[in-house]
Amino acid sequence: MTTVDTHCPYCALQCGIRLGQKGSGRITLAPRDFPTNRGGLCQKGWTAAELLTAADRITTPLVRDATGELVEASWDDAYARIVAAVRSAQGAAGPDAVAVFGGGGLTNEKAYTLGKFARVALGTSRIDYNGRFCMSSAAAAVNRAFGLDRGLPFPLTDLAGADAVLLVGSNLSETMPPAVQHLSGVRSRGGLIVVDPRRTATAALTESDGGIHLQPVPGTDIAVLLGLLHLVTLAGDTDDAYLTRRVSGWDAVRAAVTMWWPERVERATGVPVGELRAAATLLAGASPSAGGAGAYVLTGRGAEQHAHGTDTVTAAINLALALGLPGRVGSGYGCITGQGNGQGGREHGQKADQLPGYRSITDPAARAHVAEVWGVSESSIPGPGLPAVQLLDAIGQPDGPRVLFVHGANPVVSAPDSDKVARKLAQLELLVVADFVPSETARLADVVLPVPQWAEEEGTMTSLEGRVLRRRRVIQPPEGVRDELRIWHELAQLLHIPVQFAATPVEVLEELARASTGGIADYTGVDVARLDAGEGLHWPCPQVGHPGTPRLFLDRFDTADGRARMVCVDTSPVDDDVRPDAPIYLITGRILQHYQSGAQTRRVPELLRGEAGPFVQLHPVLAARLGIEEGDCVRVTSTRGSASGMARLSADIRRDTVFMPFHFPGQGAANAVTNPATDPVSGMPEFKVCAVRVSREWVS
Ligand code: SF4
């Protein structure tokens, strides 16, 4: 039996697994002891090997023929189509006529090379990725406050010693079950506070432990956070010595928060004053300045996926700073990253406004450094492009993209207002999709390029802790499949680009490390041999031999004066609020069995048996009012579109709100309903508050 230690292909927890194979037999999978999962795996992880035998695996390029069908083609034919379309589009409308849409599941090496391919080989500014939909608002808020964005600036295991954890908009029990073990200490002390409009599995755990569940109106978590800060301030529980020494902006924030007295917060959010006071007391009592063992404020997509997501996260950070938590061992603020390489995906140049090393694309010094590594002139690197929603929306406009490359993403299911996205893609002169299965986006493509999947590739990933890890190849990909690094290398040659595109992950990591030197996400000291020798390295790792940096900000924040920046937040009403013709809130999210657009997990029979299709969770009182019974088919409609699913009645959700998982396409596509309004700072769409009407479609 040959065994290989690697990591789960799905979420940012990157649980450690061991894959085994006897001869050419079936791949076996078992959890292994790794700091984030300590031998635990969720159902998705346990069944991940089944993906390797997906029945509809793509093993040859596909091109759309004259009849409109996708038919098998040679690699030469597929490349010829692509090169001709790129030349034609750019000849007619300039470099930005070609755009690139990446993914937070690509390895660091692929994320880096995709950014370089877009800017050097295609010469386009128009590159962005699906991480824009995931946690871009947290990234923007953290950068604004601390000058450096790493999801968790401390190891996950640090949570164990805290007396309180405030978890805003994260259902860890379903999205990352092995992570819940790190909350066992705080749970045993009754210190977990969950903010969620649903009584999720995580909220239920909290209640059973004597913790607190605050259940606000969707979109009002920002008011809950302001109310908590108001109470902490009023009670004199702020860490004034810390605020004086380590924070700027406190005076303005303190003055602004007086507007959020508890009764006002109760009116705005529906959270009773007593519960708000209990949460503030619990959190403040756990903070070190009050003699507690420590406290954390953590946010997830529920807090972040808003058109005011950056300010909601900023309100969470302000609360943590007022209590003196960030930059202290045993306390802090962190964001629970979602996608497997959501962290690394945004560090190496896939984002519209960033270059490798998490550098700003408008910073002349950063541009000069990266240009030298790439062997191009600084002036040849395009400026900032468009964030994901705007990039997709520009298709069909006179100066919009005419050719689009999609790598590691399925925007037809994952983007807001998804039916419109599908209509936009149909207007392209050429849509190129690289994937290993026919995702909903691949089915619309003009050229489909078959690529390896997780256990067939080598590279590195960066987990939610900023820990760089090895993804190891266990089996060779099927014949006919080509690695993306090779594809970009070959396309660059066919486009006659006089710049080297490394085609092996080791070469790319070495180049990536050089490109990151001196940047925020500094990988200079990261190499394969060091990763192989241990359990990964936390960036920044600025020199060869550097031990990595598990905990950030202990002495100073990454700002010019070393202080964290508090910023006053905008509390304008949500973009698409309920009204007589759309009187109910729709919120969306993940469920235990599925991941992201479901393109992978819907191909795993065991997961599909666990949850086969879309559902609409609604309160029995709301259901009775609408004449809906358990199992009826329910239609949820907004001004953008509609989706349907089986009614699932539950008292765990507010009476003014329905919930749908976003993993399903077609009639059950929750994102056909969601709102593409975006956060002005981060470009994050408003996934989490959507005014809808709900009706019974047919009876079960
Ligand atoms: Fe995989 Fe995430 Fe589940 Fe761990 S928690 S097994 S990384 S999906």
Assigned CATH class of the largest domain:
Alpha Beta
What structural class results from the helix and strand content? alpha/beta
CATH fold-level topology of the largest domain: Dimethylsulfoxide Reductase, domain 2
Tally of contiguous helical segments: 24
What's the multimeric state? Answer: single chain
Distance between the termini: 50 Å
The proportion of strand residues reads 15-25%
CATH level-4 homologous superfamily of the largest domain: Dimethylsulfoxide Reductase, domain 2
Total beta strands? 30
Helix content: 25-40%
Bound molecules: iron/sulfur cluster
Gyration radius over CA: 24 Å
Biggest sheet architecture: 7 strands, mixed
Q: Which regions are unreliable across 5 or more consecutive residues at pLDDT < 50?
A: none
The overall pLDDT average reads 96
Description of the molecule:
The chain has 700 residues and is an alpha/beta fold. It has 24 helices and 30 strands. It has a seven-stranded mixed β-sheet with strand order 5-4-18-17-16-6-7, with helices on one face. The protein binds iron/sulfur cluster. Iron/sulfur cluster binds at residues 8, 10-11, 13-15, 37, 41-42, 44-45, 176-178. Keywords: 4Fe-4S, Iron, Iron-sulfur, Metal-binding. Residues 1-56 form the 4Fe-4S Mo/W bis-MGD-type domain. InterPro entries: Asp_de-COase-like_dom_sf, MoPterin_dinucl-bd_dom, Mopterin_OxRdtase, Mopterin_OxRdtase_4Fe-4S_dom, Mopterin_OxRdtase_prok_CS, Prok_molybdopt-oxidoreductase.
